Amino acid sequence: MVGDARKLFIGLDIGTSSAKGVLVDDAGRVIARASGDYPLLVPRPGWTEQDPEAWWSAAESVLQTLVAAADTPIEAIGLTGQMHGAVFLDAAGEVIRPAILWNDQRTGAACETIERDVGSEKLRRITGNPALTGFQAPKILWLRDNEPDNYARLAHVLLPKDYIRYRLSGAFATDVSDAAGTLLLDLAARDWSDEVLAALDIPREWLPQVFESPEVTAEVSDTGARTTGLVAGTPIVAGAGDNAAAAVGGGIVKTGVAFVSVGTSGVVFAHSESATPDTSGELHCFCHAVPGAYHLMGVSLASGGSLQWFADRIASDEAAVAQRLGRNLHELLAAEADTVAPGADDLYFLPYLAGERTPHMDPNARGAWIGLTLSHDRRHMVRAILEGVAFSLRDSLVRIEAQGVTPDKLILGGGGAHSDVWRRILAAVLNKPVAVQEDQEGPAYGATVLAAVGAGVHADVDAAVAAMVSAPETFEAPDAELVAEYAPRYQRFTRLYPALRDID
């Protein structure tokens, strides 16, 4: 039994497939974990929705489990979750319709309206981003144009994690990093943009109050306490969007080190001391969870997802073989790919199976192998996938560096980071020393770091990271021969999408 001096914090992540929570002490030790799944709703092709009540039910269960594992009262709670979604509430705080998620594609016409009414250049200068189908603002316009009865009831619009805050406390609040993904935030002011809101006729009172990520926004109410086991009055800090929270949990709170995630999607995340929007619209600029700071971010929509697709749809017959060998199918496929020389005998793969964000911002982009011959086999195809994903991530890094943010080394996270083959390819293509983030608790862990600051246990985010986050001690330098091999191949890769884009 640990003495009462230990301070405990909960981080809760409202993800796309599940709610995940961690109980962590002030030294960064994970005491307990819990998760609860919920379904993804796809009422039409291209639409993705979820029932906010399902989030709340999972969150209640997760919180009950974590509270039961605590031997001392919880000091504070940090929230994080999937960005860009829209939860629509009426004046009584009741959900009007299922939440529309970040990967929903129904809002193309609304995006065109935003670009026209605000102005493309002004929109990117103020918000740091172009109008994309996943963001929250076009979802509001879609509701107006397609469900007028629901729109007439609208009184509040929340992001997914902030709906959980509302259920825990009754407060309408958000943080700067998540708000920056709505397309309604003035990056420089770190508050809602009156100019954008006026252009889109969105009342400011519909939106929650904006806080810096470690700030206390509310306290657990009596009602929230009864259903979760938490103590009424427990502070709830603002928290952060999932990528910013994951970066805090990985120690990406200063310049010099960037984070590269190779999960279902791929992300390149770099800390910046100032807002440097990419006016071309090819790169995201958001507020960071570090007060006063920002981050540049590129996203590849189907990184690990491309390998997962191949495993599920093309190589599924090998799953039994992998199991017999005591390996998962991804490991087996990567090992086979490692028997092929770099470049996969001039085979390229465009990993655009779900459209693409950085740099193309094209929901209609499609995947392709280019250069297939009779001599290629499955090994070459997998090698091309691993290399194509690495090239797509380099597209993001190149644009981050063009904004004057040049990391010296990279921390890799996600499932792909644990593949020796893929890690060597990533190091060479990105041409940076790399290390693997061993702590895989993800955004929920970063939310506990922010909670520790909000509770006053650590002075600021830098101090909390120093006390709670274990930074990698060694970085693996890229192989010089591989760097030389991949440099010209990346240049060829950049010419493939433009060559195919306009083919009818």
UniProtKB/TrEMBL annotation:
GO MF entries: ATP binding; D-xylulokinase activity
Gene3D superfamilies: 3.30.420.40
Coiled-coil region: none
Keywords: ATP-binding, Carbohydrate metabolism, Kinase, Nucleotide-binding, Transferase, Xylose metabolism
Catalytic reactions on record: D-xylulose + ATP = D-xylulose 5-phosphate + ADP + H(+)
InterPro entries: ATPase_NBD, Carb_kinase_FGGY, Carb_kinase_FGGY_CS, FGGY_C, FGGY_Carb_Kinase, FGGY_N, Xylulokinase
Protein name: Xylulose kinase
Naturally occurring in which organism (per UniProt): Salinisphaera hydrothermalis (strain C41B8)
Gene from which the chain derives: xylB
